[in-house]
Amino acid sequence: MIDFITARAAGSRAKFASLLLGSLAGVMAVGAASAASPDSGVPTVVVKYSEQSLATDGGVNDLYRRITNAAKQVCPSTASIRDFSAVRQVEECRDQAVARAIRQIDNSRLAALYAIHSKNS
User: Fold this and answer.
1) Does the structure show a pLDDT above 80 at 16?
2) According to the model, what pLDDT value does residue 30 have?
3) Range in 6-10, 49-53, 112-116 the model is least confident about
4) What does the DSSP assignment read for 47-115?
5) In whole angstroms, how far apart are CA 42 and each of 57, 63, 114?
6) Which domain holds residue 53?
7) Sign of CA dihedral 81, 62, 5, 116
8) What long-range pairs does 60-67 form, CB within 8 A, spacing at least 24?
9) Cα–Cα–Cα angle for 38, 23, 43, rounded to 5 degrees
10) d(CA 64, CA 71)
11) In angstroms, rounded to a whole number, what is the distance separating the alpha carbons of residues 67 and 114?
12) CA-to-CA distance for 91 and 6, rounded, in angstroms?
């Protein structure tokens, strides 16, 4: 389903985050979200960020925006707006991708921004 990985780049303070996820059918075929790996054919988006960027409101807002855009890339909406079940699956996929990313980054400012946005949805 969804996996969000952070790793320190060699000789750099940059961090990389990958969002991995598949459709509900793909997840069921894999068996478990944790079983997905970059080689499993599951869509992946890498989001780069630095610890310094998380020290400012602008940096946190930018990272949150990039995480939500990455979730839209790995959970594309191809369903008709009239197919409520499919639309809901896409929304759930995106919500889970963003939530997992926020948990993996483990930054209080980013978590607070996420809490505000999730209450408004």
Assistant:
1) no
2) 34
3) 6-10
4) EEEETGGGGSHHHHHHHHHHHHHHHHHHS---S-TT-HHHHHHHHHHHHHHHHHHHHHH--HHHHHHHH
5) 32, 22, 25
6) 3-119
7) negative
8) 60/107, 60/109, 60/110, 60/113, 61/113, 63/105, 63/110, 64/110, 64/113, 64/114, 64/117, 67/17, 67/19, 67/97, 67/98, 67/101, 67/102
9) 30
10) 11
11) 11
12) 24
Q: What is the mean pLDDT of residues 61-89?
A: 89
Q: How far apart are CA 23 and CA 74, in angstroms?
A: 9
* Measured torsion, CA atoms of residues 114, 51, 54, 71, in degrees rounded to the nearest 10: -40
- Give the count of domains, the chain: 1
CA distance linking residue 29 with residue 50, whole number of Å: 35
Query: Rounded to an integer, what distance in angstroms lies between the CA atom of residue 105 and that of residue 79?
Result: 31
> 46 - beta bridge partners?
18
Residues shown for the chain: 121
